[in-house]
Amino acid sequence: MEHQRIVVKIGSSSLTGPQGGLNHETVAFFASEIAALQQHGHSVLLVTSGAVAAGFREIGYVTRPKLLHEKQAAASVGQALLMRDYQQAFATHGLVSAQILLTRGDFTHRKRASNASMTIEELLKQDVIPVINENDTVSVDELKFGDNDTLSALVANLARASHLLILTDVDGLYSANPSKDPDAVRYDRIDEITDEIYAVAGGAGSAVGTGGMRSKVDAAKIATRGGIPVFVGRVTETGDLLAAARGVGKGSYFATHSASLPMKKQWLGFLSVPLGTLVVDEGAEKALIDNGRSLLPVGIRQIEGQFHAGDVVEVHNLQRETLGRGIVNYDHDQLQQIAGLPSSRIATTLGLDYIQHLEAIHRDEWITL
Ligand SMILES: Nc1ncnc2c1ncn2[C@@H]1O[C@H](COP(=O)(O)OP(=O)(O)O)[C@@H](O)[C@H]1O
Ligand SMILES: N[C@@H](CCC(=O)OP(=O)(O)O)C(=O)O
Description:
Number of strands: 13
Strand content: 15-25%
Helix content: 25-40%
CATH architecture of the largest domain: 3-Layer(aba) Sandwich
Radius of gyration: 23 Å
Bound molecules: adenosine-5'-diphosphate, the ligand N[C@@H](CCC(=O)OP(=O)(O)O)C(=O)O
Order of helices and strands: EHHEHHEHHEHEEHHEHEHEHEEEHHE
CATH superfamily of the largest domain: Acetylglutamate kinase-like
Structural class: alpha/beta
Strand order of the largest sheet: 3-4-2-1-5-7-8-6
């Protein structure tokens, strides 16, 4: 196996128990597994949860807090404890580690994403292990990732990793939550993330985890669309992490079919914030999805939101299923006037001599989701 860049994500459920506090032996074990990957010539980026779980007991909460400000307070105590454990554990293998705290806003702003990327590149060049978590102190409501699975997929894309390994307390995705259904069977390999996969992926299984399998499938979707294969499973014994990276781990593998997605399309699909929604008819749905064509105003049935030309909008079919996202060429009030009209009537309806773009969304500015 040649040198690879591997993102490893460790969930709260793997590091702590329901009473909170860190399990120091477990942190030390994961550090030794990561050190083994480094010794095999790979570069590892670690995305770790556990700040809230590590800190809540320390400041006097009996159970994991539910309110945002309490979670933020617990995380600010716990993040330092988490980092202290990792730094000590990596140091015993002669490895230096660095703390990086990110929010979704850091990915949506291209300049900040590029700064984060430059820092990560320099750390990897110096053989330092970036240890990444969400910046819980400044993340509010819609800015929050909510779970670190999505964060790990965004990091994998940003760093152009060759693998994303999501470690959790269950050895893969099962046909039903295996802690509740003893007849559940594991999916060893998932070639396509279908509605059936989403239907079986349930919520968190423990008092400390968030997101459960559902957010892991979301993460797998983001990473595999970016050309990065994903492992979701358990690492409990020496050598398990190396096995996971080699494709023989205890878990499920999500395959990728895409070549790595251009940065612009990644941004459009997974980082941009849509400012409106266009509902389109069956003909437009077919043109966009089956024929890879642009969206013309004639196929638009309904317009929602106050967007302007150049903004990102989401596109729904008549059943209100999301088809994808694109950059729209008209302001919302212009689109209201021309929705349903053939291209020949657009200029006169808008009172213009000529039209720069006949398409509402050009195919080059579109991603199917
Ligand atoms: N179909 C499924 N297959 C496996 N686990 C599932 C499934 N649906 C829900 N789960 C739950 O997801 C949990 C893992 O997610 P989570 O608790 O968020 O862990 P983490 O802290 O590692 O992110 C499992 O322990 C399990 O209870
Ligand atoms: N940033 C938070 C992550 C929250 C969380 O529990 O995430 P996860 O265990 O990955 O589902 C923390 O460190 O506690």
